Amino acid sequence: MDIPRYWRLRNQRYRLEGTECIECGQRNFPPRCICPHCKSDSLKSFRFSGRGTVYSFSTIYQALDTFDKDIPYSIALVKLDEGPLITTQLADVGPDEIQIGQPVEMVIRKIYEDGENGPIQYGYKFRPALKE
Amino acid sequence: MRQTAIIGIGQTPVREHWDYPIRQLAVQALWAAIKDAGAKHIEGLFVGNMLSGALAEQEHLGALIADYAGFPCIEAVKVEAACASGAAAVRQAVLAVASGHLEIAAAVGVEKLTEFSGKFSGKALATAADADYEASIGLSFAALNALMMQRYMYEYGYSKEDFAPFPVLAHQNAQYNPNAMFRYPITKEQYLKAKPIADPINLLDSSPISDGAAALVIVPLKNIQSFGGSAVKISACEIATDTIGLDNRENPIVLKAAQKSAQAAYKTAGIQPRDISLFEAHDAFSIITALSVEASGFANAGKAPKLAADGVFNINGRLPISTFGGLKGRGHPVGATGVYQLVEAAKQVRGTAPDKLQVDDVRLAMTQNIGGSGATVVTSILEKI
Amino acid sequence: MSKIMKPIRKTGIIGYGAYIPKYRLPASEISNLWRDGQDKDFLPIKQKSVPGPDEDTITMSIEASQNALKRAGTDPQKIRAVWVGSESHPYAVKPSGTVVSQILGIVPDTVAGDFEFACKAGTEAIQAATAFVGSGMGEYALAVGMDTAQGKPGDALEYTAAAGGAAFIMGPAEEAVAVLEGSYSYVTDTPDFFRRAHQKYPEHGNRFTGDLAYFHHIFNAVTTLMEELNLQTSDFAQAVFHQPNVKFPRKKAKDLNFTAKQIKEGLLVDFVGNTYAGASVLGFTAALDKANPGDRILLASFGSGAGSDAFSFIVTDKIEKVRDRAPSTRSYVHREEKIEYARYARWRNKIVMH
């Protein structure tokens, strides 16, 4: 059970909190302690909107054992509206329904259950943006 | 700094070695290299390995292997850089000799992935990715490579079948390498029908889980006459890194660490990409071969599959790659792979490759060993003396 | 004694939000597998919603609550209570509300507990949230009714046991899109339907389900509410009842003299199934989506065990401004992908591997 990691990453997995450099303004996800662009250590928390477009994607047919029961499932690199790419699972979408460039939005889903007795790990996934 | 040379090479076949423990695989390869060098001892040992702790419940490989090789009191340490562990260990051996600290050093790459079941090794391998933001949310290594491949196909307009030449060529060459895991050819049709792993990557894009060990003995170039072995000059062995997360790269389909280490290697060797006679690429997945070839300056961005289709990378082509079958055909014993590549490149330079694999007039052979999704890359250039 | 329940401080709904998962299992799939299609002319509903493999009451509560927050425009930090009503809380011990409030940015200045009262856990949470805000203990409170209901394979319940629900942010009447006029709850010990601890599927108490349970409790709750508030059925623009199937709420409406038009917008069961603690409140959000300022809406839940909560809300002109800030309930109803029984069986853990 990776409870400390799950707990520590709550604000990233639940709320897409990364960092913004106070010196140069670069935004990063995951959060950084040193700005990769200007090396400043003056960073503040920055919450991404959770909207973006598919940069690349794949459907997984052979998975690490924790995720084996979920196959087939899809993953993507999503280009967030604020700039950075994020690695994510996709939700509510079949393998033939994904396209590069398609608008997606963040939702909270179960990432995995840590066995029958362990905690349920929730976090971000992205799904095709809902049409109003 | 002194110039260095490989004086001895050794390897075990790449197999599922259920009958040998890690120490025995390593000692076999190491002593094969020491004998090939015509040497009797080594002063330092650098062990390339990624997963002995996770998959064989054994760490502290430096001391273990030095002990079982019969050198219990020498300097010995394990070097870890995911799939680039092997060449990273070679780099340490080269630095130790070049600096004048050691007169004779060995690098051995060893990996045993089959000690436990296959799924467990997949999880262990994924520790080379970002544990918090990639592996723990369901991305295997194949998944990360699939993201690169999908984007590459999109940007350059390739279809799945355009990647067939890479694994077909790897198997074509591997069948003549007695140490290779897969000694049989495959066809484009088989490739297109192979079962998907992480679409668009299928089974025949993927290098196999395997065990093996390979070793090099390294000495100062000026001392090669003191040994019986056939020497090959190490003109460059350069390492560079990139972001651990694929998503943190400016361009996820450019291997920046490969670019940097290749440029550094060309500079150190004082040569140009066109001078290279053959290239041992890190073809863990077909897409990585393409990206590696492009990052090294052998093809413009987006052109590698086109060149492969034209036969440029065949044994008799303009730039043969993966001449002993590469990771796809020879096998990919992770931490040993980088050393296998150098053993094979040394054979090509010596002119002792199997007949069907020997490239004509090899003067300069290059290898590139890639860790993770491209976060560590070691590029080496061997030169005929 | 006055039976009507009204908070000291006038209270209402500041924001509301719905959620229904994307997947639908047609009732014919169940009929074909378990009854050889023999009952195809008597199916209780057309189809039911099925949660995706990565969804549960917590994830669905989050999306519904996010929609409620968008409509409310409230600072999440001002929400001082998070109560999730469900019979399918993912944890037996660890409140769904803790995860929901962490993700929504409500923590740490809040209470967060789970409610369980079969299909009326959601309205029970609304009662509590109303009391909490109405007493002045907190400015805002979040109440959710949400379920991923499970029916035993082949059981009559399997046709309808569905997933979805709604969330409500309760607050001062001045800010409300719908002000609570009054509520009344009617509860008895009636073992019509129950699930023992550690059991996966519920049991029916013979024929208690209809007359003794559903009809009796809703009838008493609604008639008492109307008597106490001096209202006629004609005073309501819309009425929403708990909807375990299409027949029950229609019959109930008729018994109480409500017209088909009055229950139309809030009756979703035919398209999404019985979402248990989510059922009446989900229908209520659909009614709010179509409501006009000044409309009076009746909401009456039913929970086995048994009880019914009845509410009268009066819609304000603020509804026009907030309605479009979040997806409408109908847009979730229309977002659908039909699945076959096999995929449903895999996703809903009907295939036991050990």
Give the domain tally of chain A.
Answer: 1
Shape of chain C: globular
Amino- and carboxy-terminal Cα gap of chain A: 40 Å
Largest sheet of chain A: 5 strands, antiparallel
Residue ranges of chain C: pLDDT <50 for 5 or more in a row?
none
Instruction: Bin the helical content of chain A.
Output: under 10%
Mean pLDDT of chain C: 96
Indicate the mean pLDDT of chain A: 95
* Biggest sheet details of chain C: 9 strands, mixed
Q: How many separate helices of chain A?
A: 2
Order of strands side by side in the largest beta sheet of chain A?
A: 6-5-4-7-8
- Across the major sheet of chain C, the strand order is 5-4-6-7-1-8-13-12-11
- What percentage of amino acids of chain A are in beta strands? 35-45%
Number of domains of chain C: 2
> How large a portion of the residues of chain C is in β-strands, by DSSP E?
15-25%
Most residues in contact: chain pair: A-B, 37 and 38 residues
Task: Explain what you see.
The complex is a heterotrimer of chains A (132), B (385) and C (354). Chain A is mainly β and 132 residues long. Chain A has 2 helices and 8 strands. Chain B has 385 residues and is α/β, with parallel strands linked by helices. In chain B, helix 1 crosses helix 3. The relative contact order of chain B is 0.20. With 354 residues, chain C is α/β, with parallel strands linked by helices. Chain C folds into 2 domains: 182 residues, 3-Layer(aba) Sandwich (Peroxisomal Thiolase, Chain A, domain 1); 141 residues, Peroxisomal Thiolase, Chain A, domain 1. In chain C, helix 2 packs across helix 3. Chains in contact: A-B, A-C. Chains A and B meet through strand 4, strand 5 and strand 6 of A and helix 5, helix 6 and strand 5 of B.
Structural topology:
The complex is a heterotrimer of chains A (132), B (385) and C (354).
Chain A: H1 3-8, H2 10-15, E1 17-21, E2 27-28, E3 43-47, E4 51-60, E5 73-80, E6 85-89, E7 103-113, E8 120-128
Antiparallel strand pairs in A: 1-2, 1-3, 4-5, 4-7, 5-6, 7-8
Chain B: E1 4-11, H1 22-37, E2 44-48, H2 52-56, H3 61-69, E3 75-79, H4 85-98, E4 105-111, H5 118-125, H6 141-156, H7 165-174, H8 188-193, E5 196-199, E6 201-202, E7 212-220, E8 232-241, H9 256-269, E9 278-280, H10 286-295, H11 304-309, H12 326-329, H13 334-350, E10 364-371, E11 376-383
Parallel strand pairs in B: 2-3, 2-4, 9-10
Antiparallel strand pairs in B: 1-7, 1-8, 4-7, 5-6, 8-11, 10-11
Chain C: E1 11-19, E2 23-26, H1 27-35, E3 47-50, H2 57-72, E4 79-85, H3 96-104, E5 111-115, H4 121-134, E6 140-148, E7 163-172, E8 178-190, E9 193-194, E10 203-204, H5 210-229, E11 238-241, H6 247-255, H7 260-264, H8 269-272, H9 279-290, E12 296-300, E13 305-315, H10 319-322, H11 329-334, E14 337-338, H12 341-347
Parallel strand pairs in C: 2-14, 4-5, 4-6, 11-12
Antiparallel strand pairs in C: 1-7, 1-8, 2-3, 6-7, 8-13, 9-10, 12-13
